[in-house]
Write a structure and sequence with these properties.
Mean pLDDT of chain B: 88
Strand order of the largest sheet of chain A: 1-2
Radius of gyration of chain A: 21 Å
Number of strands of chain A: 2
Order of helices and strands of chain B: H
Mean pLDDT of chain A: 89
Shape of chain B: rod-shaped
Strand content of chain A: under 5%
Distance between the termini of chain B: 61 Å
Low-confidence stretches of chain B: none
Distance between the termini of chain A: 55 Å
Largest sheet of chain B: none
Number of helices of chain A: 21
Helix content of chain B: over 70%
Oligomer: heterodimer
Strand content of chain B: under 5%
Structural class of chain A: mainly alpha
Radius of gyration of chain B: 18 Å
Largest interface: A-B, 48 and 31 residues
Structural class of chain B: mainly alpha
Helix content of chain A: over 70%
Shape of chain A: globular
Chain lengths: 378, 42
Amino acid sequence: MDFLIEGFISITWQQVLMYIIGGTLIYLAIRKNLEPALLLPMGFGAILVNIPFSGVLDQTLTGIGEVQGIIDWLFRVGIEASEAMPILLFIGIGAMIDFGPLLANPRLLLFGAAAQFGIFATITVATLLGFSLTDAASIGIIGAADGPTSILVSHVLGSNYIGPIAVAAYSYMALVPIIQPFAIRMCTTKKERAIRMKYNPKSVSKTTKILFPIVVTIIAGLVAPASIALVGFLMFGNLIRECGVLNSLSETAQNALANLITLLLGITISASMQADKFVTLETFLIMGLGLLAFVFDTIAGVMFAKFLNLFSKEKVNPMVGAAGISAFPMSARVIQKMGLQEDNQNHLLMHAIGANVSGQIASVIAGGVIINLIPKLL
Amino acid sequence: MNSNFYSSLELMGKGMLAIFVVIIAIYAVVSLLLNITKENEQ
């Protein structure tokens, strides 16, 4: 009767810890509504892959040989072979984004660029902690505040830490409403947070909206060719949205495609959450560094806005700089809320949304730039 | 200081430069497009 208790006696404390981590992710998804579309599948997947002799992973059975597990197969096909899942998700994300507020005030593009500094600052700290350059870059990209970009870059660079990186990226994206106000208050005064900004948007023609994704793809592709998979698919989704003749495809990309990929991506990533790879000191370091990346991003955005204020007549509320991260639309909402807390007539939402969508473009460019540069530095 | 640290500083410099180059180029083209299409509308 040993076969009945084989599973129980094979279980390790690391696997028990993974059940607790999985349960915590499911709890955060359901009770706290933190990125439920990703954290719930990842949490459940963490339990699935940590059951001893789990059938969702590849197994070698006595007398039968190699048997494929569905999650290992999904990981090989959807992520390892071509990074198809994160890249295809970008079509849906692109179709969801309205770049109108950004195009109406293109100066906001600069904030998206500045807020990527956290990625590089974190890479530097990670190298000081002893991580290799490829692992450090994979960890730093958590600061892109963009789950699919983090997964894709860490996989392309061959990092051993895809699981912790994905968990950190999605967890901290969900925690933006807690992390950003703390970081913003650290580096701004009450007077700065109360700066009012006029909203005088330029009119944006349909032609501009259609040409924008094409222009971005060409420019980003010429400077950082490795970014073309990310930027290109994001902009392809946006072109479908803006062209006006593919409404049905646009809706499919925004809903069916994005939902399907998100559903599978979360559970597929759990392949990298097996206890022997996940329960390590490095995982805790990565979680800490991920938090640092979000704080650095926020501070960099704020400081860049302050820097611009030295030269411009119309002052920018420095908090808008912090919205230059990719976590859309949480970051913009946080800035709007903080602006209203300081002055109940200070509406920063449209400026913050512009900076926020700029962060989405800049973060995928950052991912491509890192993939481009790392091989040259090794 | 290990060599990875110096490489990470180089990555920071080149990476931020590349991101700003792309973003400023997009900014310039978007501003141009806004002006051209505005004139056409008028």
